Amino acid sequence: FNQLSASMGRAQMGESQVRVVPGGPKDIADMAHAFNRMMSVQEEREAALRIAAIAFESEEGMMVTDANGTIIQVNHAFTRLTGYSAEEAIGRNPSMLKSDRQDAEFYQRMWKSMRHDNYWQGEIWNRRKNGDVYPEWLNITAVIGKDGKVTNYVGAFIDFTERKQAENEIHNLAFYDPLSQLPN
Predict the structure, then answer these.
(1) pTM for this prediction
(2) In this structure, are residues 170 and 157 in contact, taking their beta carbons and an 8 Å threshold?
(3) Which helix (H) or strand (E) holds 52?
(4) Which of 19, 25, 47, 89 is 20 to 30 A from 101 via CA?
(5) Residue 175: in which H helix or E strand, if any?
(6) Strands (DSSP E) along 25-174, which ranges?
(7) Residue 97 CB burial class (10 angstroms; 0-12, 13-18, ≥19)
(8) Phi and psi (nearest 5°) for 176?
(9) Tens of pLDDT along 102-157?
């Protein structure tokens, strides 16, 4: 019991590589095995959280909202792409980025898709903190809890201004004379 108690105390202090050597009566050995299984599960969860933290800090802008759409977390790429610091974004709604280039019907279709598929992706025009409007490719995924209800939304986006500029240039070259700008 003393060894089990000491190991549990070390685990509470944050030490994750704690194990108990089973020994003694069967009940004590069973408790030691249960404790070791619990610590293994905790180590696996911590490893998964470390992987998730690294994935969250990707080159894509990312934000996490609660079920009501309030931003609870953003990554560094979000800050770099939008100009908003984490402190400025957390507690607000993603509509703070709204550029008014999409109408209400666009957002109704987007949320209808979210309710039906728990997922939406597409092109959207947003506004940076400095007022610049830019195109982004946005993926929104609903996080579903054990009860089947949405607990969070995760949005990941890339700024594809350069791609849009290239598309426009290709379109102009295909349909307009480069010198006179008259239609071909």
Answers:
(1) 0.67
(2) no
(3) helix 26-56
(4) 89
(5) helix 161-175
(6) 61-66, 71-74, 119-127, 133-144, 150-159
(7) buried
(8) -135, 145
(9) 999 999 999 999 999 999 999 999 999 999 999 999 999 999 999 999 999 999 99
Cβ atoms of 109 and 118 within 8 Å: the answer is: no
- Fill in the amino acid letter for 9: G
- pLDDT per residue as tens digits for the range 66-82: 999 999 999 999 999 99
Tokens of 165: 């500029």
For the range 89-94, what are the long-range contacts, defined as Cβ-Cβ under 8 Å and sequence gap of 24 or more?
89/63, 93/65, 93/69, 94/63, 94/65, 94/69, 94/155
Q: Beta-strand (E) ranges in 29-159? A: 61-66, 71-74, 119-127, 133-144, 150-159
The SS3 call for residue 100 is: coil
Can you tell me the distance from the alpha carbon of 38 to that of 31, in angstroms, rounded to the nearest whole number? 10
SS3 call for 15: coil
